[in-house]
């Protein structure tokens, strides 16, 4: 809490960069996770995993008190390699199955790369250049796009 609200002021970043990096090492490591929420529930399934999708290891277990316990599938995690502000090709894939998501990569809480993640295979691609600090990605499709990630 203190790190995020105190150290990330521009004045602190400029004045205490080494201290910011030391504190960032203590901060929680962000992950991209997939949760699956079951839409249909039968009380007879108490204690069973309600997720039947073949492409995920996420689980949803109905408990005896009629609550559902969700366990995510981690689809992206790496030491000092965050994946923030995820975006997809919303124009064509909003509410539909998709394969690619794009995110802002951070190292020590400083955005210094753009990442592309295949949410099915977990393969990643990274764009990064020295002294380049991108903002969150926004997918812009090619006018004649044939593939989901053509943009």
From TrEMBL:
Protein name per the record: Retinoid isomerohydrolase
The principal location of this protein is membrane
Keywords linked to the UniProt accession: Cell membrane, Hydrolase, Iron, Isomerase, Lipoprotein, Membrane, Metal-binding, Palmitate, Sensory transduction, Vision
Q: What's the protein's topology in the membrane?
A: Lipid-anchor
User: Cofactor(s) for this protein?
Assistant: Fe(2+)
Q: Which GO terms describe its biological process?
A: retinal metabolic process; visual perception; zeaxanthin biosynthetic process
Q: Where in the cell is it found?
A: Cell membrane
State the family it belongs to: Belongs to the carotenoid oxygenase family.
Which EC number(s) does the record attach to this protein? 3.1.1.64, 5.3.3.22
Q: Which PANTHER family match?
A: BETA-CAROTENE DIOXYGENASE, RETINOID ISOMEROHYDROLASE
Q: Which Pfam families match?
A: RPE65 (PF03055)
Q: Which GO terms describe its cellular component?
A: plasma membrane
Molecular function terms from GO: all-trans-retinyl-ester hydrolase, 11-cis retinol forming activity; beta-carotene 15,15'-dioxygenase activity; metal ion binding; retinol isomerase activity
Task: From the UniProt record, list the reaction(s) this protein catalyses.
Answer: an all-trans-retinyl ester + H2O = 11-cis-retinol + a fatty acid + H(+); all-trans-retinyl hexadecanoate + H2O = 11-cis-retinol + hexadecanoate + H(+); lutein = (3R,3'S)-zeaxanthin
Which organism is the protein's source?
Bombycilla garrulus (Bohemian waxwing)
């Amino acid at each position: 809490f203190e790190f995020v609200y105190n150290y990330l002021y521009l004045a602190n970043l400029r004045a205490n960069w080494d201290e910011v990096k030391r504190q960032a090492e203590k901060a929680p490591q962000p992950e991209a996770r997939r949760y699956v929420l079951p839409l249909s529930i039968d009380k007879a399934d108490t204690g069973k995993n309600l997720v039947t999708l073949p492409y995920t290891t996420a689980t949803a277990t109905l408990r005896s008190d009629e609550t559902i316990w969700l366990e995510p599938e981690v689809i992206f995690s790496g030491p000092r390699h965050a994946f923030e502000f995820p975006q997809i090709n919303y124009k064509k894939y909003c509410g539909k199955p998709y394969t690619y998501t794009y995110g802002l990569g951070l190292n020590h809480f400083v955005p210094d790369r753009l990442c592309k993640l295949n949410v099915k295979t977990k393969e990643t691609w990274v764009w990064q250049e020295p002294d380049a600090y991108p903002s969150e990605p926004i997918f812009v499709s090619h006018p004649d796009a044939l593939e989901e990630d053509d943009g």
